[in-house]
Every structure is written in C-alpha cells, then in structure tokens.
Hints:
This protein is of the alpha/beta class.
Amino acid sequence: MKKSIIALVILTVFEFISHGTENLIPNGGFEKGKANWSTIKLGQPDYKRDFLVDDKIFHGGRHSAEFKYISGSATGYAWFSQKIPVNPGRTCELSLWARRKGDGRPVNFVVHVHMKNRPLISFRTRFSTCDKWEKNVFYFKIPTGVKDINLALVASKTGTVYIDDIALKYSQLPPNIIERESSVFVPVSEDKETCDFNLKSTKSGNDFVIYQRMAPRRIKYTSIPQKNELKDELNLVVTPDEFEPLWFSIYAAKKLTEVSLNANAVFKSSGRQLKPDIDVRVLNCWPQRTDWNSRNYSMVSELLEKKSSITVPAGNSRTFWLTFKIPEQAVPGIYKGSIILNIKKKTVKEIPVSITVLPFRLKQPPGRYWAMWTSDNYRKSLNEYKRELQDMKDHGINTLLLYPQGLGDCRFAVDKKGKISFNSPTLRKLQNIRRETGLNGPLLLYWGGGLKIKASKLAASSAKLNLKSKALRKTFIDLLKAVDDFVKETGKNGFSEWYYLGTDEPQIWRGGQQSALFEHTAARMAGIKNLVTINESAFTEKLSRYMTGICWGGAPNSVEANVYRKNMPCEYWWYGTGVYTGQEGGLMPNRYYCGALFYKSGAIGEVSFVYQRLEKTGDPFDDFDANKYSEPKDAYIVYPAENGKDIIPTLQWEGIREGIDDYKYIYTLEELIKENKKHPRTRNHAEKTEKKLKELLSSCPWGIGGINSDDPFKVIYSNEKAAALRKDVISMILSFIPETAVSQETK
C-alpha cells in the first residue's frame, strides 16, 4: 500500500488568502441577467429545466441564477457555460455560493471545466442543509499550452438550486490540498463531533473508552463517543452456519501504542461450549474522491485490514471489526465469553461478548440471484480464483458476471466443415471452481460488442458492421451456439445455465439501440437466454419481447416504477449495488438494496459492481493517480493485498452480505407462514403474522432511482433500521417455534 496515501496528513485549513483578486468570470453574480452565459443544446426531447435569473433569493448583489426543474422532464438537465481566457501554468481558485431549495427533491449541481484536448475536470457542489447559502471552493491548474477554458454549470435531477457570486481567481494551493501532477483535489468540509459526557466518569478509566456506533459510515478517526454508544457488553444474534460482523471502537484520551486484540475465545452456555471462527481486522479511514471524476475528496472509512497492532493518537478513535463464523452444528442458546484488549502486550480490558445462537437455520431462496461483476481484466492464478470465488460464496453471492475477453484466452475456431467451436482454459477452470464452491446461479457472460466484431470477421464483412447482413446474423448465432456448447460441456451437474449480455446500457450510446436489437433477436433465434442492462424507455418495451430478462438500472424508486418493471414480458433483474457513488465506506445502502428492498421489489436477480476494477485506474491504493482515464476513481468492493495471499474486504462488501442475510431471514419467515397456513391449529397465527410482515415491508421506502446513492437529504435506510427490521423478523420466526426449542432468555 502506498505509504504516502495511508499516512497522508490532512490539515484542516479551509481559509486561505488568495494571491489574485481579479475575478476572471464576467457576470458571475448574474447582475446582468444571462449575459455572457450560453446554453448548450443536449439534443434530447426531455431536456426540461429552466435557467432563470432570480431577484428574490440571492447571496450578493440583487440577483442569482435559479436552476429549476420542469415537471414531466425525464432527465431534468440544465447545462450553461461561458468561455474564459486564462494564463497557462497558473493555479486557479474557483468559488461559488450555492443554496438548495428545501422541497425534498434530490438535486445535483456540478461545475465542469473544459480544456481543449485535456481530460474533463468536474467539481460537485456539496450541500449540508437546505434553504441556506453555502460556499464551495475548488482548485485546479491550467496546463501549459491552454489559453482558455469553458466553464459549464450543470444541474440535474428534480430539485431546485440557486447559484450566486461565481468567482475564478489566480491563487496558490492551501496545505489541505492533494496534488497529482496538474490535478488538484480539495477536501469537503465535515462536521466536528463533540462529547456529551465526562470521559473521566467511565469504567474504562482515563486512558480510553470502548464504544459502538451502529452506523459504520459515521466512524472516522476523528469520531468522539456519545453517551448512548458506550458499551459494557457486545452482543451478537446469529443462526448456525452464519457469518455475522461485530465491531467496536476505542477512543483514546491519551496516545495508545501497540494496541491489539485477542479474540481466540471460547463461549459457554449451560455446560456447552461454542468456538466460532473469528476474523479480526481494523477499519482504515483514508482519502477518497467523492465521485467518478470528482476533484473533491473526503475521508472514508472503508478498508478492513489485518494488523497485529495499532496506534491510537490522543483524541482519536480506531475501530476493530470482527467477523464471526458460527459452526454449522452449533446448539441454540446464549453463550458468554470475552475478547481481550491488550496494550503493549499487557491485558488492559476483558470485553464481555454475548452470542445468541438462534434455534433455526436460514433458508436459501430458490430462483433468486445475487450476481457479482468481477472485472474487465480478470486474469489471476488458480489459487487466487479459488480464494475469490469462495469469498463471494461466503458473502452470499451465487451468480458470477464475467467479461470473457478479459480472461485473455477466449478462442473461436472453425473446422473444415465450417463449424465454429469455442474454448477458454480459464473459463473451464472457473466452471470447476464454481462447482467446488457451490456458486450455482446462472453464469452471466458480458461480451459488450466483442461477439459482433468477431462475427463480422468470420463472415468476411469486417469492412463494415452491417447489422442487416444475413451472413453476419448467421455467424453471430453460430458463435452463440458455440459458447453454449462450451458452457454446457464444462458446466455439467447443475452449472450449465448462462445468459448472454451484449451492449451495456444501449440507450445511451450512438447506435446502441440497433446493436441491442441485432444481438438479442439473434439470441432469441439461437435459443440462448439473454439479459440487457437498460433504463425505462419506449425502446426498452420494444426490446423486452426478445429478452429472457431485463436488468434495470438502479433500484425501483416507486411502487409504480416497480409495477412497470414487473409487467414486462420477461424476468425482472436490477443492478445498483457495490461501489457506485455514495456506496463505498458503509454497510448502507448495499445492505438495504441487497436485502429488504430486493425482497420487496419481487425481482429475481440483483447485480453488484464491481469486485475489483483491475488495470483501469492505476494504483488501487491511490484514488488520485488515474486522471488520464474517463472515470479515474478507483472502484473496489474488495481490494487486492500486496502480499498476494490475502484480500482486503470493505464495509460495502460486508453490507452486501448483511443484506443478503436480511433477505434470507425474511424468506425463512415467509416459508414458515406458508407452512403454518396449511394447518387449522396454526392458520390464524400465520395469517396475523403474514399481515405484520406485509406492514413491515410496506414501511420500507423505495429507492431514489438511478444507480448512485449519495444524497444526504434522502437517506434511503439506516443500518439501525435494518437491524430493527431483522430483530422484528426474528421475533416473528421464533413465534412459530415450539417453546421447548426456545429458551425464555433467547426469546
């Protein structure tokens, strides 16, 4: 890991004296109306957002720019810009005042800096409140040879935002800036925590405090414990053969060195013993971009690293993350034990832990799939493949999404009779590993446009991809059948089901709709199952008649959107979990999307992106180095380890597992209800419980739409709520289990 990143000192100096006072932006306060600002035509019929000059709400002067959504618009984009002369080689400070209207509607506001033949620079405006002006400051450098820039103001989604007093000045960089070559990254301001009790009055003594925060996303190095977070005992409720996390934090009143944890514990209950496997890790907080192309960063608690010991600076917190694996044959009951906190190899505290093993097992829902997109370039050793697929299995993933070309050895051959065959030694190995690990969901093979290109070469029409060519269509079908033969041959005994995925999100690419129709009509003719990633549109309705399934972009955002998807004449899948914007560094929203919301939607498949985004964005441990790429932000659900022997999980990865388990708890209850409704003696209780479950699920909100979740004004669901939901479901399950099988204290 890059020590320069991990040990980066972030200074909280947000006030900085500019070395240039002249504002390079004419009419940055909109006192002359729309003068100097021009509209960029997007060429979309649903381009419906107004750029107005407001004389009632303003920051300075007597006017501001209002970006107002027009009802009925599908995209709600507004894009306005002006060209500004600049001096090459100078550092610029860009500042603006922004105010979000408090109408409950989501809104994004981004400033784009366009330079000829240079990568786009984007700054996303951050809002911490509504109906209040907030200043945003960004920095960037003008490369050599660039004499002017285009500054674009872009608003999207359905909310309203006001912008005023935009200023561009030559400046120097303040000390809290991260700099990579000509790229500059600015921290977003974060609220400082204060303590609501006297640390000296705690049982831990004056040196440290043990506490537990239920929202891991809010656990930072600078976190300060609150009185309701103090813990005398840590509690775990789990079923046999289940993985379950437990975490706690240490706040140091003075510097602590060589802090370690001994979790080699035996837990006891009424003469019985429980010896779970416990994986001990430390939660690492580090700087990460706030968006795919963002020039802002924030401190994100994300990595779960193996460390023999840690240092906790005075006034700081550090977090231990323990994953318990309960033995399959564990006897139900409440087990007591403790884990040992050591400082300089001396025991300073025994932390009591209570484990409640429930008297039932989680049921695996048939015909429900949690898929994991691996990587564009998935070339690894056999042991690495085994380790990673087992890791996916242990986290509840049962379906693999692969990019075959990324395996590096996919080959098509044509024999003397003109028959096409397919072979990939790596895919053959992966099929064997899927069988060994029990990763038995359908194999999703994403080809992009690769299969069409191969077909055009074999059909001697490579000079032009003529999608109307009968020869091209026939060859394309033969290629699909060759892959089908290979998957069936290597996937015997339950691992031969697969889906063809072609052009990704065809609605956004030029020619994408024609390509999708060609691919999927051919797949239907070949008798091959197919899946497409796409959003709602008239074209989607047309394409649906040729599809086995549609994988919709994002969670459904309303009951109407969900019904619309379910009414399509094909399977209902959706994608939107993993490491999209707002998902790294927390159990949420992945836990909710993979769990309760997936269950509520009634979809059969849910896809996460991406296990590891290898060789796409430079060093995976430096989020600021890959600025030559179109989406330079690192995207990893699991990070590779430097020693090649381990992998580094993340909070977002643990959120996916917790969500899948939430789904299984609900499904287990649903099956108990169905079974008990068959018997007169238990029918009444089953029907009442069914009603309670429906009410519980109806209280679960729909998603916000799209595949990103970074909206502080519409938090979908908290980890506290998800834990409470699971607790309610467990209580309902226990109500069906005979009293003889459940101790009173377990209930």
